[in-house]
Design brief:
Blueprint: H1 2-12, E1 19-25, E2 28-33, E3 36-37, H2 40-51, E4 57-60, H3 66-78, E5 83-88, E6 104-105
Parallel strand pairs: 1-4, 4-5
Antiparallel strand pairs: 1-2, 2-3, 5-6
C-alpha cells in the first residue's frame, strides 16, 4: 500500500514530459521535448519515471520512417520503458487532433 502511494506521489511530482516528439531528419532520428532535443542524460532521467508507469506519448511526423520509430522504441526499452503510445503529428493545415496509433508494448 505504501509503495502504491509513493509511486502516485512520484508520478504527480514528476518533471518527465508525458509527450515527446520524434525529429526525423535525413539519416537522423532524435527526440525532442519542449522544443529542445533530448540528450541521453535527459532521456535516462525521464525513462526512470516512464518505466515506473508514467505514460509517454511519442508524437510522430508523417515523414518518419519505420526504422526511426523502431530505434526510438529500442532506445526506450534499453532504459526499461515497455509501453509507449505513438501518435501521428496533427496536420497544421487541417488543425485536427492527433489520431492515436495503437499503444506499443514490448514483451521480453
Amino acid at each position: 500500500m505504501i509503495s502504491i502511494i509513493a509511486l502516485a506521489v512520484l508520478l504527480l511530482n514528476s518533471n518527465a514530459p508525458t509527450e515527446i516528439v520524434v525529429l526525423a531528419k535525413s539519416r537522423k532520428c532524435d527526440l525532442s521535448s519542449d522544443g529542445r532535443t533530448l540528450r541521453n542524460a535527459d532521456l535516462e532521467a525521464y525513462a526512470v519515471e516512464w518505466a515506473a508507469g508514467r505514460p509517454v506519448r511519442i508524437i510522430v511526423p508523417r515523414a518518419a520512417r519505420t526504422k526511426c520509430l523502431a530505434e526510438v522504441m529500442f532506445k526506450l526499452h534499453d532504459h526499461g520503458v515497455t509501453r509507449a503510445e505513438f501518435v501521428d503529428m496533427p496536420d497544421a493545415l487541417v488543425g485536427d487532433s492527433a489520431s492515436v496509433r495503437a499503444p506499443v508494448e514490448v514483451v521480453d
